[in-house]
Amino acid sequence: MPPASSSTLSVSAPAPPKPLHLRRPLIAAAAAALAALLLLAAAYATWRVDSPPAALLARPAAPARFYSFDLVREYPHDPDAFTQGLLYGGNDTLFESTGLYHRSSVRKVELPTGKVLDHHQMDGDMFGEGLTLLGDRLFQVTWLKNDGFIYDRHNFTKRKSFTHKMRDGWGLATDGKVLFGSDGSSKLYQMDPKSFKVMKMVTVKYQDNEVPNINELEYIDSEVWANVWQTDCIARISPEDGQVLSWIFLHELRRNLWNSGNTSIDVLNGIAWDEGNHRLFVTGKLWPKLYEIKIRPVVGPADGSVEKLCPKASLYR
């Protein structure tokens, strides 16, 4: 995907309900209930860089459709890495695909230190995109092309190319059987990893509206998790029908980096899942940090709208 765009998350936002007018005899009881809720919310949160969007605390909602996060640990990350694909490689290592012309690469990274252990520099006319690991093979797609590459995970010099049928190359993930792919639209593809034939394609929707800009992907517990380009949000998608099951809001991560003086960072991008240890890692393009987080349910708007919670990402000043 390009470094910048004016695209937004296209979801509808029904008008909020009119405020209720309480009668005088109920004011004291309502105030006591509100105080109890606030105390519970404060006890539940274990870490805050900044408060979640106000709408997250609006009113009870079940089942949980919205999630925020607790920070477990932060790690160094190459601030020059324009992260396009990220995955956990085992033994505290990550595999990463980076983008931009003349700067794209595939690399193996040591998680605790951020040190690059192995590196393949791509040709200058290639813009690296999504990356996934199936067996001992790393699959990578490229932007604005139908070309991709397969690397030996142990030796990046052993590689071959392939051609896929997606409109473009953005994200890749796998469940160990098929390749899931995105092309920057609202489409989620399932491809055969040998022939690259499209076996199934679904439209990603939330509240009957298409969600465009589906970007970097990760397969986690029977769901496809997707960065939505130019937002600070992750959509948790059913691969069966493309429905967005829930949303994860990560606004604080990029806001905190910006407020700490990291004004050259780009958008949130990069999800890696350590299945064996149930660890979740996220980062972004040109971010100097990679974060291990745990998600937790939060209260969202009663109408389920995310338009105000997942706007196009903006610079924090």
TrEMBL record:
Instruction: Please name the Pfam families in this protein's record.
Output: Glu_cyclase_2
In terms of superkingdom, the source organism counts as Eukaryota
InterPro entries xref list: QCT (IPR007788), Quino_amine_DH_bsu (IPR011044)
- SUPFAM superfamilies noted in UniProt: YVTN repeat-like/Quinoprotein amine dehydrogenase
This chain belongs to the protein called: Glutaminyl-peptide cyclotransferase
- Species of provenance: Urochloa decumbens
